[in-house]
UniProtKB/TrEMBL annotation:
2-(S-cysteinyl)pyruvic acid O-phosphothioketal: residues bearing it: 117
Function text: Cell wall formation. Adds enolpyruvyl to UDP-N-acetylglucosamine.
UniProt-listed InterPro entries: Enolpyruvate_Tfrase_dom (IPR001986), Enolpyruvate_Tfrase_sf (IPR036968), MurA_subfamily (IPR050068), RNA3'P_cycl/enolpyr_Trfase_a/b (IPR013792), UDP_GlcNAc_COvinyl_MurA (IPR005750)
Top EC category: transferase
Keyword field: Cell cycle, Cell division, Cell shape, Cell wall biogenesis/degradation, Cytoplasm, Peptidoglycan synthesis, Pyruvate, Transferase
GO annotation, biological process: cell division; cell wall organization; peptidoglycan biosynthetic process; regulation of cell shape; UDP-N-acetylgalactosamine biosynthetic process
Keyword check for Oxidoreductase: no
Protein name: UDP-N-acetylglucosamine 1-carboxyvinyltransferase
Length: 467
C-alpha cells in the first residue's frame, strides 16, 4: 500500500511555491467546452489526479487536449458525445460541472451523479433548479441524470437556497450561452468563482458581479478559446502556512494571495503566529507558544471548510481549549478518529468538536479519510513524537502537488513509499444512495421543480439543438 512516512520534530524553514488552484482549474477546464472555435490555453494547471480526471472527461466528450509544463490546451470544435461516464464522474465532484456547458452548447446531457470527498450528502438540487429555470427538462435515472432543452437555454432569475460553489459555477457556464440575461442571487463568492468568470469573459462572455452575492450573465451567441492563468491554490497555501506554524517554523509561501486567505490569516494571528504579507507571497513565522481559538466554517469570506481539518491539527498543539464548528458539510469530522490514534484529545458534539490542545501527539498508523483530512494528518505528524504512517493517499493526490517533495524541501523528515496499488476505498456513496439523497433534496423544492424518476431513460441522439 502506498504510504507517506513522517518522523516528527523538524522545524520547517525556506520557501515553498503554491501550485494552481484545483478548485479553480476544474471548472475552468469544464468551461473550455463552451468554446466552439480556437484553442483554450490554460496555464498554471497543477499536476493532480483530479486534473487528469477532468482531462479524460473532456476527451470522452470530443475535446482534443495536450498537457505540458503545467499548461493545458483544449480545443473542442465538435462535441462528439453528450454522455459523461460513471467511471470518471464518480471519481470527483467537479466532473459534474460539465453538465452546464453541455446543456448550453448541445442542448443535451446524460451524466452520472458525482463523487468527490464523502464529507456529506452533497445534493445537486440547486444545480438542477437553475437548469430547469433556464428551460431544461430533467430526468433522474438509476445513478444518472438526463437533461435536454428544446432550442437554446433561456436567461432566468435564479435564487440559490444555499450559496453553492458548484451550482453557481454550473449555472454561470450554462447562462453564458443562453438567450438573454440570467441573474444568480445568493451566489457563492469564492475566489474560484471570480477566476471562472474572468476566463469566461476572456472567451468573449459577459459575466458581471462575480465575487458578490449577485451575478449577472448576459448570454452570447458563441465563445472562443482563450488564454488564462489559474489563480494560486489558497487551500494548498493555507496548508503550508499551518505546517510552518505547527513546527515553530519560518516559511515563505510563494504565490499565496493574502486577500484569498483573510479568515485563515486572522485566525493564525489570533493564535500568535506572525504573518508578513508581500506582493508575491506570505511569510509565516511561529516563535512563541500558540493560543487556542474557536473556529467556525462558513461560505467565503468565512473560514473555509477545506481548511478545517488542518486548522484542527494546529489547535492540537496550542495552549487551551478550542471549539471547531463545521457548518458547511455535515460529515466533515472523520479525521477526528485518526487524530485520536495520535493521542489527540478531541470530543465531537454534533457539528462542533472540542479540542484540548497541548496534549503531546504521538506517531501512529493513520488513514486519510478525505483529501484535506490527509493533509491535516501529515501536518500533525510533523509535530508528533516518533513516526507516523499515512495511507489513503489517493485522496491527497487529488489535491496536493508533490506534498512529500514540498515538505521535504522545507526540512521535514518525510518520505513516500509507493505500493502495488491502493486498497479500494469508496470515495462516494453508491449511486443508488446518491440518487436517494438527490431525490430527497429535490423534494424540498417540488413545488417549483418537477422530477420524473425512471428506471430507464430513453437514449437521445447527439445533435446540437441550436448552433
Ligand atoms: C471542486 C470544488 O470546488 N469543491 C469545493 C466546492 O464543493 P461543492 O461545489 O460541492 O460545494 P457547495 O458549495 O456546492 O456545497 C456547500 C453546501 O451546499 C450544499 N448544497 C450544494 C449544492 C446543492 O445543489 N445543494 C446543496 O444543498 C452542500 O451539501 C453543502 O452543504 O465548495 C466546497 C465548499 O466551499 C468545498 O469544500 C469544495 O472543495
Ligand atoms: C472537498 C474537496 O474537494 P471535492 O469538492 O472535489 O470533493 C476539497 O477540495 O477539499
Amino acid at each position: 500500500m502506498t504510504k507517506i512516512i513522517v518522523r516528527g520534530g523538524q522545524r520547517l524553514t525556506g520557501t515553498v511555491r503554491v501550485s494552481g488552484a484545483k478548485n479553480a482549474v476544474l471548472p475552468i477546464l469544464a468551461a473550455s467546452l463552451l468554446a466552439t472555435e480556437g484553442d483554450s490555453v490554460i496555464c498554471d494547471v497543477p499536476l493532480l489526479d483530479d486534473v487528469m480526471t477532468i482531462q479524460s472527461v473532456l476527451q470522452t466528450l470530443g475535446a482534443q487536449t495536450t498537457y505540458n509544463n503545467e499548461t493545458m490546451s483544449v480545443s473542442v470544435p465538435i462535441i462528439t458525445s453528450y454522455e459523461a461516464p460513471y467511471e470518471l464522474i464518480r471519481k470527483m465532484r467537479a466532473s459534474f460541472l460539465v453538465m452546464g456547458p453541455l446543456l448550453a452548447r448541445i442542448g443535451k446531457v446524460r451524466i452520472s451523479l458525482p463523487g468527490g470527498c464523502a464529507i456529506g450528502t452533497r445534493p445537486i438540487d440547486q444545480h438542477l433548479k437553475g437548469f430547469e429555470a433556464m428551460g431544461a427538462e430533467i430526468t433522474l435515472g438509476q445513478g444518472f441524470i438526463e437533461a435536454s432543452v428544446n432550442g437554446r437555454l433561456k436567461g432566468a432569475k435564479i435564487y440559490l437556497d444555499v450559496a453553492s460553489v458548484g451550482a453557481t459555477e454550473n449555472i454561470m457556464m450554462a447562462a453564458s450561452l443562453a438567450h438573454g440575461t440570467t441573474t444568480i442571487e445568493n451566489a457563492a463568492r469564492e475566489p474560484e468563482i471570480v477566476d471562472l468568470a474572468n476566463y469566461i469573459n476572456a472567451m468573449g462572455g459577459k459575466v458581471r458581479g462575480a465575487g458578490t452575492g449577485m451575478i449577472r450573465i448576459e448570454g452570447v451567441e458563441r465563445l472562443k478559446g482563450a488564454r488564462h492563468n489559474v489563480i494560486p491554490d489558497r487551500v494548498e497555501a493555507g496548508t503550508y502556512m499551518i505546517a510552518s506554524a505547527m513546527t515553530g517554523g519560518d516559511v515563505f509561501v510563494e504565490g499565496a494571495i493574502a486577500d484569498h486567505l483573510t479568515p485563515v490569516i486572522s485566525k493564525l494571528q489570533e493564535m500568535g503566529v506572525e504573518i508578513a504579507e508581500s506582493d508575491n507571497g506570505i511569510r509565516v513565522t511561529a516563535t512563541r507558544p500558540l493560543k487556542a481559538v474557536d473556529v467556525k466554517t462558513l461560505p467565503h469570506p468565512g473560514f473555509p471548510t477545506d481548511m478545517q481539518s488542518q486548522m484542527m491539527a494546529l489547535l492540537l498543539v496550542s495552549e487551551g481549549t478550542s471549539v471547531v464548528t463545521e457548518t458547511v458539510f455535515e460529515n466533515r469530522f472523520m479525521h477526528v478518529e485518526e487524530f485520536h490514534k495520535m493521542n489527540a484529545n478531541i470530543k465531537v458534539d454534533g457539528r462542533s468538536a472540542i479540542v484540548t490542545g497541548g496534549v503531546p501527539l504521538t506517531g501512529a498508523k493513520v488513514c486519510a479519510t478525505d483529501l484535506r483530512a490527509g493533509a491535516a494528518l501529515i501536518c500533525a505528524a510533523l509535530r508528533a513524537d516518533g513516526e507516523t504512517e499515512v495511507t489513503g493517499l489517493h485522496h491527497v493526490d487529488r489535491g496536493y502537488v508533490d506534498i512529500t517533495g514540498k515538505l521535504a524541501s522545507l526540512g521535514a523528515d518525510i518520505r513516500r513509499i509507493e505500493g502495488d496499488g491502493e486498497a479500494a476505498v469508496e470515495e462516494s456513496p453508491a449511486p443508488a444512495a446518491v440518487v436517494h439523497q438527490t431525490v430527497v433534496a429535490a423534494k424540498a423544492s417540488e413545488s417549483t421543480v418537477a422530477y420524473k424518476r425512471e428506471k430507464e431513460v430513453a437514449v437521445l441522439k447527439v445533435q446540437p439543438t441550436w448552433a
